[in-house]
Specification:
Arc Repressor Mutant, subunit A, 3% strand, 66% helix, mainly alpha, 2 domains, two-stranded antiparallel sheet, single chain, Four Helix Bundle (Hemerythrin (Met), subunit A), 251 residues, 2 strands
Length: 251
């Protein structure tokens, strides 16, 4: 027992107190993700949030900005504007993964390893779950591959691969493929890689995979996609070895 005039033996570690804006953002985030605030629900006006929370207008604005960046609300300007709840979609997954790829300067090798693990299964699921509109998107993207210049080819190629993932009707896989495709677009944006032969091979491979998806042949779709991604990765990595490519901001 410590005497009245003695020093206490109790020692406390430094504590981090969360910012008020983080506290408010966390509270609203949990209510949105739990379904308490369905998509499209308008949040109270900024002035009302200030009154309800007893927080400053700057704090409220910062909290709303956090939620907007996370894709949980959208801000509309004008008389009918305000903050409206929206559910996170594939783009939320894609944006987070893209930050990792670019921020850590992930090499093309790692990206292709991930594609070889993910894309064949996307094709398998697409064969099982595709719709007629999914098939139309695949056909349109593949037709565009043979047209235009380098950037048009790269965009059409990205569109086709994302369309396969979309046809899987798996939101997580779709988000992953959007991010990976953006990285591949950046890394292969070079005339030294995209030749007429590369275009022709890609188009034939895409048609073969699309045919299996159309026929709902999951085994063939998975096998053909695996072969296509492997050959594409091998060619891209040969270019990487010559140019020392890492995925950053495309410069």
């Amino acid at each position: 027992m410590v005497s009245g005039g003695g020093r206490s033996a109790i020692r406390l570690s430094p504590m981090e107190v969360p910012k008020a804006s983080d506290v408010l953002a966390n509270e609203l985030r949990e209510r949105i993700l739990s379904g308490e605030y369905p998509e499209g629900t308008p949040l109270p006006p900024e002035r009302e949030l200030v009154t309800q929370t007893h927080m400053s207008r700057t704090t409220v604005r910062e909290a709303l900005r956090i939620l907007e960046v996370q894709g949980l609300i959208r801000i509309k300007a004008g008389r009918a504007g305000g903050a409206f709840v929206q559910q996170p979609g594939e783009e939320s997954v894609a944006d987070s993964l893209e930050l990792l790829i670019r921020g850590r300067r992930i090499r093309l090798t790692s990206i292709h390893e991930t594609r070889e693990a993910v894309e064949p299964f996307c094709a398998r699921l697409a064969a099982l779950h595709r719709s007629e509109s999914d098939l139309r998107r695949l056909d349109e993207a593949n037709e565009a591959i043979g047209e235009g210049g380098l950037e048009e080819f790269l965009q059409a190629n990205v569109d086709w691969h994302v369309a396969v993932a979309t046809a899987s009707h798996n939101e997580i896989l779709t988000g992953v493929m959007i991010a990976l495709s953006r990285a591949i677009y950046t890394a292969t944006n070079t005339e030294g890689f995209v030749t007429d032969e590369v275009r022709s091979i890609a188009q034939r491979a895409h048609r073969s995979v699309t045919r299996a998806i159309r026929e709902r042949d999951a085994e063939a779709a998975q096998r053909r996609m695996a072969r296509h991604i492997h050959h594409h990765a091998k060619a891209a990595l040969e270019v990487e070895n010559r140019t020392d490519i890492t995925v950053t901001d495309g410069s």
